[in-house]
Design a protein that fits this description.
Blueprint: E1 21-23, E2 26-28, H1 30-64, H2 69-97, H3 106-124, H4 126-141, H5 147-180, H6 186-208, H7 216-237, H8 254-267, H9 269-299, H10 304-331, H11 334-355, H12 359-387, H13 393-421, H14 428-439, H15 441-453, H16 456-459
Antiparallel strand pairs: 1-2
Helix pairs in contact: 1-2, 1-6, 1-7, 1-9, 2-5, 2-13, 3-5, 3-7, 4-5, 5-13, 6-10, 6-12, 9-13, 9-14, 9-15, 10-11, 10-12, 11-12, 11-14, 11-15
């Protein structure tokens, strides 16, 4: 691929000639574009495979250690929320203005990847680390501290480190797409990107998840090494183009920069309403996720193999839905697809709370929920790419995570407390989801209306904060 052309010969961002495709200063032939997608898809396969370990393993091992539901909620999501809120605003602005030979996103990926793997391995080997500390440290100095308590402490530390480095990794990876994928291919790219990720999830759930407790050390080590090798190759082979010089800004304190970040994010009404939608969906989907897993194991009494099979059916149903929903995003509007998915989510969640009583019912739930899941996943991803301005894409895109993680921090603690109050009646996790999906409908209607007022599909120009 040819990364640089003279500025006066380049068409507008995303515009293409008959034989070449452009993204900023990047120019691709059809072959180059295929190679780019191949590397990005390979990185996605390895990344989904790797990220699935931590999210699936943590609630289960905490359950075996008899941790409270509030602690499970805190470690599963609230840690992620805290580090996103504290660090992502300035990291996103730093990345938007970063200039190097490798670009403004890839350097962050190359640094964060190995550190994320190390943090994940720390959680995978937490029992062995706790046992070593108990024998050589606490048994002598603080014998009242049990090995179980030490294991929980190691898991807490590993979770905090993992969520910090993974925050940089996930966000930089998503920002990279805006900088290297031509706009005219974005919806199709995101469709196939999700299909590849879903295939990685299928492989993980079918072959790895049932053994994640029994062969914990082997699973964590092999998957971590596999991910690190594949993702590093992707980073070295995908090239970013040149970016315009960063305007000089007055020096300011970190606190003032932090406050300015939030002021800019919420100053434009269409962005503000979209943040509200995202917060509601995060509360409805992510906060309930760990407790739906526990619902399968503790309420429906499914074993690990059955849970893995259930999740495999869910991923397979989602994979099948990606292509038709991606086509629908292209033919209609990702804004509209995102809006329609929200009431569907609420209806299916209520039905699950009332009707799911066994393994077959759970399989039916996963198959039906695939429709709004894909509608939201693809629709919101394409909407985000179209909605936010390229010059500040990292900042506004990170705003989704910052506001969402703020909700995640409080939401995980709250739902954990509610589950404790309800004596671990995990069925009510579905009701929790339905409420927040329903609340998200109105602000998404306002986003769609404002988008049309600002020009819609043909003439929308992302507004910048004043």
């Amino acid at each position: 691929m040819t990364p640089i052309l003279p500025a006066n010969t380049l068409p507008a961002h995303g515009q293409s000639t008959a034989t070449t495709y452009h993204c900023g200063t990047l120019v691709y032939s059809s072959r180059d574009l295929g190679v780019l997608f191949l590397f990005l898809f390979g990185g996605d396969f390895a990344f989904v495979f790797f990220e699935s370990i931590f999210g699936r393993y943590l609630p289960l091992v905490l359950g075996e250690l008899n941790a409270s539901n509030m602690l499970i909620g805190l470690m599963s999501g609230s840690f992620a929320g805290i580090v996103n809120i504290l660090f992502l605003p300035n990291i996103s602005r730093w990345s938007d203005g970063f200039r190097s030979r490798l670009g403004r996103r890839i350097p962050f990926l190359l640094v964060a990847s190995p550190l994320t793997v190390l943090a994940c391995l720390l959680s995978g080997f937490a029992p062995e680390i706790a046992s070593f500390l108990h024998r050589n440290v606490t048994a002598t100095w603080t014998p009242s501290v049990s090995e179980r308590t030490l294991t929980l402490c190691v898991l807490c530390v590993s979770a905090a480190l993992y969520h910090f480095f993974n925050m940089i990794l996930v966000n930089s990876y998503n920002w990279l797409f805006k900088d290297v994928v031509p706009d005219i291919f974005m919806a199709r790219f995101l469709t196939w990107f999700r299909i590849v990720g879903a295939f990685g999830m299928l492989v993980f759930l079918w072959f790895v998840f049932p053994h994640i407790i029994e062969y914990r050390k082997t699973v964590f080590t092999c998957v971590g090494v596999f991910y690190l090798v594949v993702f590093t190759i992707m980073c070295w082979c995908v090239k970013e183009g040149e970016y315009p010089p960063v305007p000089k800004k007055e020096k300011t304190t970190m606190l003032r920069s932090f406050v300015g970040y939030f002021r800019e994010c919420v100053s434009v009404p269409i962005y503000r309403n979209y943040f509200i939608v995202f917060v509601c969906v995060i509360l409805g989907m992510s906060c309930a996720g760990a407790f739906i897993t526990l619902f399968m194991r503790e309420t429906l009494l499914l074993n690990m193999k059955d849970i893995g099979a259930n999740m495999t059916w869910a991923t397979l149903a989602v994979t099948v839905m990606y292509y038709p929903v991606g086509w629908l995003c292209d033919k209609t509007s990702p804004f509209l697809v995102t809006l329609v998915s929200l009431p569907l989510y609420a209806i299916v969640s209520i039905a699950a709370m009332l009707l799911v009583e066994n393994k077959a019912g759970m399989v039916a739930y996963w198959i039906v929920i695939a429709i709004p899941t894909v509608g939201w996943g693809l629709g919101s991803a394409a909407t985000t790419m179209k909605l936010f301005p390229s010059a500040k894409f990292g900042q506004f895109s990170s705003g989704l995570n910052v506001f969402g993680c703020g909700a995640l921090t409080l939401g995980n603690v709250l739902i954990g407390q509610i589950m404790d109050m309800l004596n671990s009646n995990y069925r009510f996790a579905f009701l929790w989801s339905a409420i927040f999906f329903a609340v998200a409908i109105l602000p998404m209607v306002l986003v769609l209306r404002e988008w049309k007022r600002l020009g819609g599909a043909d003439h929308y120009n992302p507004p910048l904060p004043t």
